[in-house]
Amino acid sequence: MPSSRMPKSMAEKKEVVQWIEKNGGVPTPAAVYFKNERGWKVSEAQVRYWWKQRTAIKTAPALRSRLSGAGAKPRLSEIEDILFDQVLFRRSAKEKVSRDWIRDAGQRLAASELGDTDFVASDRWVNGFMRRYGLSLRRTTNLTVLTDDVLTDRA
């Protein structure tokens, strides 16, 4: 069964905040009004939350659906910064950086910096780390086995 939750745009949230300001500054009647008059499925708790966040909602663009700062925060941001520096250093030294190396280095850093020996550094974490820092792995080619003369003839 699909969820009955319907996301509200920032324009609709602004409309709710304006209605509350116009009608006495109490958020709970706004939920009843928008349920009955507009047919929205919105809880009183959600309307109270919008009222609490009213300054951010007023300044946000109307087409955005979420406030900035929403979402999960990376838990290992300090370790990821150190790991990213290590990746850049290895690349500048012309050393190979692989997904396995990133995983192992992440586990070593978590153990040494945080004392977290249970950190797994899963494929999902490696994917997320590489996406957050804009990293990609080099593709392997067979052109390195060719001599310079053959490569210049191909060009």
UniProtKB/TrEMBL annotation:
Domain HTH CENPB-type residues, every copy: 67-139
Pfam families named in the record: HTH_Tnp_Tc5 (PF03221)
Keyword annotations from UniProtKB, A to Z: DNA-binding
GO molecular function: DNA binding
Protein's UniProt keywords contain Heme: no
Coiled-coil annotated spans: none
Domain of life: Eukaryota
The protein, known as: Unnamed protein product
